[in-house]
Amino acid sequence: MTETSPIAGLHAATAELDPPLAALDLPTLRANAADLVRRAAGTPIRVASKSVRCRAVLAEVLGTDLTAAGGFAGVMSYSLREALWLVRHGARDVLLGYPTVDRAALAELAADDIASRSITLMIDDAAQLDLIRAAVGTDRVRPRVCLDVDASLRIGPLHLGVRRSPVRTPQQAADLAGAALRRGFEVAGVMTYEAQIAGLPDSNVAVRLVKRASAAEIRKRRAQVLDAVRSVTGELEIVNSGGSGSIEVSVADPGVTEVTAGSGLYVPTLFDDYRAFTPRPALYFAMPVLRRPAADIATVFAGGYIASGPAGSSRVPKPVWPRGLKLLGAEGAGEVQTPLSGAAELRIGDRVWFRHAKAGELCERFDAVQLVDEDGSRVGVPTYRGEGVCFG
Fold first, then answer.
1. Which of 61, 124, 288, 348 sits between 20 and 30 A of 99, alpha carbons compared?
2. pLDDT tens, 4-14?
3. Rounded to the nearest 10 degrees, how much is the dihedral formed by the CA atoms of 61, 62, 64, 68?
4. DSSP letter string over 1-58?
C-alpha cells in the first residue's frame, strides 16, 4: 500500500472498526464525478441508482453544482418500488430503466400526485400499457412513459448487445407511441442503451471496431426513430442514452438530451480496461484474516461476493491489498471463507482489502458504507440494505 493509494486513507480512517466493512474514498468519488461531467461535455447526466444503492452517495453526486458545463440531474431507477421510495425521500425526476409489472406499486403511483409527476415508466410493449392502465384503475391519471428502443448491433444473424426491447424500427417506435397516447399515457421520451458500447472495455482492436460500427448504426437509426416518434407525439422531454463506458459516443449525437452513468462513480474491476477514461477505484471492502492454513496462505472471512452476468473469473472480487494476493483456483471466493495465496506476511486479525467486479451490487452485502474524506474524517451511512429495503 503506497502513501498515494486511496486504500491508505481508508485503512487508517477505519482502523478502530471491525471488518467486514465497505469504505468509499470521497475525494476519488468526486474526481470520478467531475470526470464524468467533463466527458459529458455539457449534456446532463442521470445517475443510475442500481450502480450506487446508497442515498447518501446519490445526494453527494446530485448535489454537484449544475453549470454551463453540465452536471448531474435526475435518477435512473431499476424498480418502481425503489422509485416510489426515492420520491418519498425527496427525488423529483426518476426515470425507470426497465419496465414494471408490479400492480400494487402502479396503484400506489396512481394514488400519489407527486409520484405521478416525478416518475417516468419504461415501456417496450403495448401489453405493458394494458397492464399499467388496469393497475392504475382510473382514466383520470396519465402515467408518464418512455419508450425503450433496442440499440443492439445486428450483422446478419449476429446480435451484439443485450436482449432488451423488441422495439427496433422507427415504425415500431411510432406505433408504440401511438398506442400509448390512445390509452391515455403521456409519452415523455425515448431511451437507447448501447450495452455493446457502454459495457465492454475497449482494450483490443476488435472491440473498438465493433464499437465504432455500432455507434454509427445507432446514431443513424436513433435519428429516424426520434423523427417517427415525434411525428406522433410532438417534442420529447427525454432522449436518454449511454452508460459510464460510452458517454462520449452518446453526447456526440445532438439528438441526445441526457446520458446515464453510475458505475463510473465507484469504478469496479470490470471498468479497469477502458481507454475512454482513467479508472480511479473509489469503493472497496475489507475482510479479516481468520486462519493461516499454510505458510503462504491466509484465509479471510466470507468474501464470495460474485457479480451478476456470465459466470467467469471477471465476476469474482479481486484482492488488492496487501499486494500479491491471489484467489486459489480450487476454491475461489467463498460464502463463508476465502483462502488467498501470497500471504506470508499476514497475521490473524489483519485485513485484506478487495474490489468488487460491479458497482452497486456490493451494497447488497453491507448495511453501511464508511465515507472517508480527504482529511481522514469518516462517517458511516446506510446502504439500501441498511435502510431495510431490497428491490432486487
1. 61
2. 579 999 999 99
3. 130
4. --TTSHHHHHHHHTTTSPSSEEEEEHHHHHHHHHHHHHHHTT--EEEEGGGT--HHHH
β-pairing, 238-241 with 283-294? unpaired
Vertex 316: Cα angle to 52 and 335 (nearest 5): 95
User: pLDDT tens-digit profile of 329-365?
Assistant: 999 999 999 999 999 999 999 999 999 999 999 999 9
C-alpha cell at 320: 488488492
For residue 310, whether the previous peptide bond is cis, meaning omega lies within 30 degrees of 0, is: no
- Give mean pLDDT, residues 14-34: 97
Q: Give CA separation, 170 vs 175, 176, 311, 316, in Å.
A: 9, 10, 35, 40
- With 80 as the cut, is the pLDDT of residue 53 above it? yes
Report which of 102, 185, 189 is spatially closest to residue 141, judged by C-alpha positions.
185
What cell does 292 get? Answer: 493461516
Question: Residues 271-289: what's their mean pLDDT?
Answer: 90
Residue 306 to residues 15, 142, 288, 318, 334: CA-CA distances in angstroms?
26, 41, 18, 10, 9
Q: Which of 311, 290, 312 is nearest to 301 (CA)?
A: 290
Nearest to 113 by CA among 74, 140, 150: 140
Q: Which three-class secondary structure state does DSSP give residue 134?
A: helix
| Length, in residues, of the chain | 392
Contact between 141 and 197 (Cβ < 8 Å): no
The CA–CA distances, whole Å, from 74 to 47, 58, 120 equal: 6, 10, 11
- CA 115, 262, 258, 221: dihedral to nearest 10 degrees? -110
Residue 110 host element (H or E): helix 103-110
pLDDT on residue 154: 72
The Cα–Cα gap between 342 and 19 comes to: 21
Between CA 67 and CA 108 the distance in angstroms is: 35
